[in-house]
Amino acid sequence: MDEKRIKVFGVPSSEDRRATPSNFFYYCTDMLYVSTYKPKKNYKVPQVFTAQDSYGPVLTMKQCKEGLPKHFESLVNGSIVNLKKVAEIKKTDLGAQFIFNVDMEPIEISEYAYDSKPWIEILRSAQEDPEDDRWLPAIEYNEGNGQGEGKLIRMRDVVCIESCEPKANYYVPLYKCEDKYYVEAMTLQSYKPLFPKLFPLLNTNLVNIDQVDSAQDLIFDVVVRFKNSPLTTSMAHKYKKHFPEFFKK
């Protein structure tokens, strides 16, 4: 995997950028630092800062649909199916089945849902769309057994997306791939093994050391400045000895 070309799926903070699905990404090497923010009062999630914008995780099915290309089609039951993974749509007595070209159980839809759209035409058009080249920071999800290993998964490998509840009253998209199911990485700690270039300079951040230009020692803080950006973050005093090159004379 060429790290310079990794496009990471994420929700841009700027509303005007959210109007276009192709803006739902940042390059891995453009990450300046990661901190956290509170989308709701009872939990925090990672927030990625680049020189151009900041990005959060995809927290809702609505955000998924807004950020995904058109061959990820919403179904009446609330799930989203990757039509590039559909081999055929088979009419049944009660509606229809989406039969996949990978080893996964078909998805059933009602007769009303089948009649609501020209599915055969939509499926044919989807096969002509380019593949999604973005990656998702993800954690393996096993219902009832907690979360497993973290990895970057390709959005093109996602077969369908449904909603799940990993914690009480905490609903997030569930990405179903042929091999395993995943939820998005939702903690600062989970980002560190996924992006090895990031280093914790505080308990509340992860910093891309390659993007640091300098640091300034203040009384109660160490301010870290980045290349080609007015953004700053902080460093704990205990890390100063490890990065003497940051402190310009």
Walk me through the topology:
Blueprint: E1 7-9, E2 11-12, E3 25-27, E4 33-40, E5 43-49, E6 54-56, H1 61-67, E7 72-74, E8 80-82, E9 86-91, E10 95-100, E11 107-110, H2 111-115, H3 119-126, E12 134-141, E13 147-154, E14 158-167, E15 170-177, E16 181-184, H4 188-194, E17 198-202, E18 205-208, E19 212-217, E20 222-226, E21 232-235
Parallel strand pairs: 1-12
Antiparallel strand pairs: 1-3, 2-6, 4-5, 4-18, 5-6, 7-8, 8-14, 9-10, 10-11, 12-13, 12-16, 14-15, 15-16, 17-18, 19-20, 20-21
How would you describe this protein?
The chain is mainly β and 249 residues long. The model has no long low-confidence stretch (mean pLDDT 91). It has helices spanning 61-67, 111-115, 119-126, 188-194; strands at 7-9, 11-12, 25-27, 33-40, 43-49, 54-56, 72-74, 80-82, 86-91, 95-100, 107-110, 134-141, 147-154, 158-167, 170-177, 181-184, 198-202, 205-208, 212-217, 222-226, 232-235. Strands 1, 3, 7, 8, 12, 13, 14, 15 and 16 form a 9-stranded mixed beta sheet that branches. A hairpin with a 5-residue loop joins β20 (222-226) and β21. Helices cover 11% and strands 44% of the residues. The chain has 4 helices and 21 strands.
